[in-house]
Amino acid sequence: MAKITGSREYMANLTLSYSEVEKVMTAQQVIYEKGLVKLESNSMITALGPVATVLGLAFVTSTPAGIAAGVAGIISGLVGSAKAELDSLVKNGYWELGKTRDFLKNNPKYTHVELKLPFIEYTLDAKDKIRFITGKGVLVRVKTSTGWIPFE
After folding, report:
1. Going by DSSP bridges, is the β-strand pair 138-144/147-150 parallel, antiparallel, or unpaired?
2. Nearest-5° Cα angle at 95, 5 to 58
3. Given this model, what pLDDT does residue 20 score?
4. Which of 14, 89, 107, 143 could form a disulfide with 112 if both were Cys (CB 3.0 to 4.6 A apart)?
5. b/e for 91-129, b at 16 or more Cβ within 10 A?
6. Predicted local confidence at residue 46, as pLDDT
7. Nearest to 19, CA basis, from 41, 50, 49, 45
8. pLDDT by 10s per residue, the chain, length 152
9. Which of these, 19, 38, 11, 47, lies nearest to 134 by C-alpha position?
10. What span, in angstroms and rounded, lies between the C-alpha atoms of 97 and 103?
11. What integer pLDDT is reported at residue 102 of this predicted model?
């Protein structure tokens, strides 16, 4: 089993369409329910298959099996309040992504958003990385049929 060898929190930009926001939300929910609440690696791998196109973009690790192995390593390495904090952060990240999805749904003139999002990233065995969105992003700009415009 992988061992946590480092962690950090930071902000990074992601550019997402409505469909990609929904896929990232699904992935984060699956990771939470089939990883953090009760580790079910095989179920997690199966459930992440349909949203695999966004895994590398949002979570750094790009395969369902890699995500499942990373989550298993994280779960085995966290105890007490650290595990409870990660639980809360992942749920909050999912919740905040829902607001972005709703924004895009209610503003169909925007095809994509660029968000500056908060992440927590774990390094496993000093080489593999996996990260999770942990909270509210800042809308940097939006894309319309004519191009990108700063969001104010």
Report:
1. antiparallel
2. 45
3. 97
4. 143
5. bbbbebbeebbebbeeeeebebbbbebbbbbbbbeeebb
6. 97
7. 50
8. 788 999 999 999 999 999 999 999 999 999 999 999 999 999 999 999 999 999 999 999 999 999 999 999 999 888 889 999 999 999 999 999 999 999 999 999 999 999 999 999 999 988 889 999 999 999 999 999 999 999 87
9. 11
10. 10
11. 97
- How is residue 96 written in tokens? 């905040």
**Which residue do the tokens 């089939």 mark?**
34
| Residue pointed to by tokens 């095989």 | 42
Show the DSSP H helices in 78-149 as ranges: 80-106
Residues shown for the chain? 152
Single-letter amino acid code for the residue at 63: T
CA dist 102 → 1, 24, 67, 106, 122 (Å) = 38, 14, 26, 6, 29
**Under 8 Å between Cβ of 115 and 137:** yes
Q: Radius of gyration over alpha carbons of the chain, in Å?
A: 15
